[in-house]
């Protein structure tokens, strides 16, 4: 359409990008670049696209035949959110299902919008068969809580901060499913990660002074990490085994700074989604080897 100027009423001649000779060529060059990107998309993983551009981790599981999975579900906004997993149960094996996950399908049937109790009825109907589930994970690959589930967790009165710590601890301990950072990406600063603390509904820089003191008062054993500032975000990677500890895009980070009386410490505050719309912010505190490194 751009090159042949063949319209047939498909687009506006004067007001559209395609109808403009220069803008149309720029648009074509953009599409050409996109044609070289390998989009590994799962079409069924689209249920949160109305709320966030971030795609959650989407997993298929086939569990052994059983009548009791050891799961307790909370139903909110039409979604079946896992609120408890019994220790030693079929679902708990290898952390297949975790608190905060959403059950999207069971036995090939979408359960979105189902009422309480219908999932149990589905188990009874398929008694003796392997239990196939499709699960939207409550956390991203590096352990961060998936932004789309945060409002659901709050409505179910689940402690998001506690879940965040559990997810990140699991991400550190697991060998499978944890991204290893290549040597090319490790050109960062070696610092000590002291910990994090919630600062509430605002990510203003004024919270940093108090947050640094609060984190240091917890007397946690710091982790030696490489802090990598990339093109789209910040990552903290364990120095010992290159496992991801933190990962935040710049759109999630609302502020950064340090205390005047602790010039070798610094911190940044990030929301659980884009900082312009987030209602929950956390401060992450680090200690550098020298004051010059902080500057």
Keywords:
Pdz3 Domain; six-stranded antiparallel beta sheet; alpha+beta; 295 residues; PH-domain like; 19% helix; seven-stranded antiparallel beta sheet; 3 domains
Order of helices and strands: HEEEEEHEHHEHEEEEEEH
Strand order of the largest sheet: 10-9-8-7-13-12-11
The total beta strand count reads 13
Bin the strand percentage: 25-35%
Number of domains: 3
**Helix/strand structural class:** alpha+beta
Poorly predicted runs are 175-181
Radius of gyration: 23 Å
Mean pLDDT: 85
Helical percent range? 10-25%
**CATH superfamily assignment of the largest domain?**
Pleckstrin-homology domain (PH domain)/Phosphotyrosine-binding domain (PTB)
- In terms of quaternary structure, the protein is single chain
What is the terminal separation in angstroms? 52 Å
What spatial form do the alpha-carbon principal axes imply? flat
| CATH architectural designation of the largest domain | Roll
């Amino acid at each position: 359409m751009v090159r042949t100027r063949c319209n047939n009423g498909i687009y506006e001649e004067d007001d559209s990008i395609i109808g403009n000779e220069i803008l149309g060529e720029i648009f074509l060059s953009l599409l050409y670049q996109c044609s070289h990107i390998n989009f590994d998309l799962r079409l069924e993983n689209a249920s949160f696209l109305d709320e966030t551009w971030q795609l959650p981790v989407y997993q298929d599981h086939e569990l052994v035949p059983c009548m009791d999975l050891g799961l307790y579900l909370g139903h909110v906004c039409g979604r079946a959110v896992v609120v408890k997993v019994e220790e030693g149960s079929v679902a708990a094996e290898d952390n297949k299902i975790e608190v905060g996950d959403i059950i999207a399908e069971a036995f090939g049937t979408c359960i979105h919008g189902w009422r309480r109790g219908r999932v149990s009825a589905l188990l009874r109907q398929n008694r003796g068969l392997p239990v196939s589930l499709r699960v939207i994970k409550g956390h991203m690959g590096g352990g961060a809580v998936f932004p789309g589930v945060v409002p659901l967790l709050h409505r179910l009165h689940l402690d998001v901060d506690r879940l965040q710590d559990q997810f990140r601890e699991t991400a550190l301990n697991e060998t499978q499913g944890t991204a290893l950072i290549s040597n090319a990406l490790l050109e960062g600063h070696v610092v000590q990660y002291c910990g994090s603390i919630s600062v509430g509904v605002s990510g203003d820089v004024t919270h940093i002074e108090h947050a640094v003191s609060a984190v240091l008062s917890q007397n946690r054993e710091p982790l030696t990490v490489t802090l990598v500032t990339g093109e789209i975000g910040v990552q903290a990677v364990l120095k010992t085994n290159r496992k991801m500890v933190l990962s935040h895009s710049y759109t999630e980070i609302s502020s950064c700074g340090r205390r005047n009386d602790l010039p070798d410490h610094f911190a940044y505050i990030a929301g659980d989604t884009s900082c312009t719309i987030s209602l929950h912010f956390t401060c992450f505190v680090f200690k550098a080897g020298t004051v010059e490194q902080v500057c």
